[in-house]
Amino acid sequence: MLTRLSIRNYALIDSLDIHFDNGLNILTGETGAGKSIIMGGLSLILGQRVENRYFFNQDKKCVIEGYFDVSNYELDGFFRQYDLDYERETIMRREISVDGKSRAFVNDTPVTLQVLKALAEKLIDIHSQHATLQLNTEAFQLLTLDSVARNRQVRERYAEKYHAYNRLVTRLSAMKAEAQQANTEADYQQYLYDELAKANLEADEQARLEAEQQQLEHAEEIKRSLYGAVYALRDQEINATALLKEALHHIQHAERFMPAMEPQAQRLESCFIELKDLAEEVSRIEQSVVLDEVRLQEISERLSLLYALQQKHRVDGVEALIDLRELLKAKLEAQSSNEAEIQRLEAEAERLKTETLELAAQLSDSRHAVVQQVEDQVAGTLREVGMPHSTLRIQISRLGDSALRESGQDKVEFLFSANKGMEPQPVGKVASGGELSRLMMAIKSLIAKTSALPTIIFDEIDTGISGEVALKVAEIMERLAQHMQVIAITHLPQIASKGNAHFKVYKIESADKTVTNIAQLTNEERVVELAQMLSGANPGETALQHAAELLGGR
């Protein structure tokens, strides 16, 4: 419930501080006095965007605060959800700086406009002349049925399942698209992998084979060279080994007479032994070197395969081919895994869809169950406000299983007829502005009885009505005020007379400024205000008496 509204430095308002009653609050004033300005200020703390920066004082920021008693509306969970301090008297504040930057607060905690708006939607419903456009929207028509059906828990469970199902379907669709793309490439990838796997690649084989190929291709030349080395080391008549042996013999002979030559003798002996051993080793190698045409052919073919694979895949080296083979293997395994995951998700999606459809059916049943109640109660209210022959018909049709929506499976249409003998048609096609206003009020009054909304604001919805009808509308507002706080901006004295609190909006004009102000009227002041609404600025005794009669015992 809105207990207090403070507006500072906004449009024609320097400073206003309004304390509202918990019942029916009336705001009156001449056209242009500033009632819409007050509503504009209120809309800012309800999360509306700043359309302009028209400040009373262009050098100061604009501050708007709304004080709400939320103690009876079970909003603790909302405050926990957004990590806000829960206070029985909650303050929603909006600050707009001179450069147009806007900040919002709930109980002095900064919040986004989305959070501010979400909280406002749980506290206030503003019903203006333009709100009748909502009547034609399916969202509002569903809201009407759901409010009367009190099916919030089912709707929340349905919404949870619906969004989970949608997320899963989106994921499944993406995976299937990827799988389809992969399938178009799968055969080729499998061919490439099989080709590389069949090649039995080894990391170092190319270098080893190239070395062996070079040896086989030059086997004769290698053999001649090695033979020449053995000949020079060992087999020639005067060879290196024989000469070294002769030198060793001479050094050893000298050593007998010159012991200091022992190290040189030992070194020369080691050289002789090493050279003799080297000659034997080179001889064995020379004998092992053969020209193997078969082996050379095998190596050439193997290297040709390796070179061809590298050229085909545009890589350098066998190691890169092995990496490619493992990558292809991983892709093929992943594709197989994805197919299994797709099958699992399809089963999960089918399960979720079944659960969602079951909840959609419960939601639909709850709506069907209150159709007659809504039709009858709206018709009853319309009879009270001068539309005795009006008819509201509610049609609900079930969409197919493939047409699940966030609101369920129902397609709802309100059909209306204001006059006897006329077939009900879609609301916007058959009703005048005044008829739409009364129909909207009838529906809102019905919703108010079944919702926990603390406050409803009627912003000049009395357009097109007068006399006895206006009195009936006033009585409906009075009844509404027994269940919730009602704030009504009106030009009709019949409605204004029903208020528990009556505020007058007026302008004060000076030489250089025009200021919008508001004051709560005393009983005596209310009589004068109602008389002026009845007959003009200078009411006579008859108007004053009529106004007093309207107020009755107030």
UniProtKB/TrEMBL annotation:
Asked if the keyword DNA damage belongs to this entry, the reply reads yes
What organism, scientifically named, is this protein from?
A: Parapedobacter composti
Which SUPFAM superfamilies does the record cross-reference, listed alphabetically? P-loop containing nucleoside triphosphate hydrolases
Q: Which UniProt keywords apply?
A: ATP-binding, Coiled coil, DNA damage, DNA repair, Nucleotide-binding
Please provide, alphabetically and separated by semicolons, the GO molecular function terms listed in this UniProt record: ATP binding
One GO BP annotation here? SOS response
Query: What protein does this entry describe?
Result: DNA repair protein RecN
Q: What does this protein do?
A: May be involved in recombinational repair of damaged DNA.
Which segments does the entry list as coiled coil? 165-222, 328-362
A Pfam family (short name) is: SMC_N
> Gene3D superfamilies, from UniProt?
P-loop containing nucleotide triphosphate hydrolases
Task: Give residue ranges for domain RecF/RecN/SMC N-terminal.
Answer: 2-510
Give the GO cellular component terms, alphabetically: bacterial nucleoid
What family is this?
A: Belongs to the RecN family.
Q: State the source organism's domain of life.
A: Bacteria
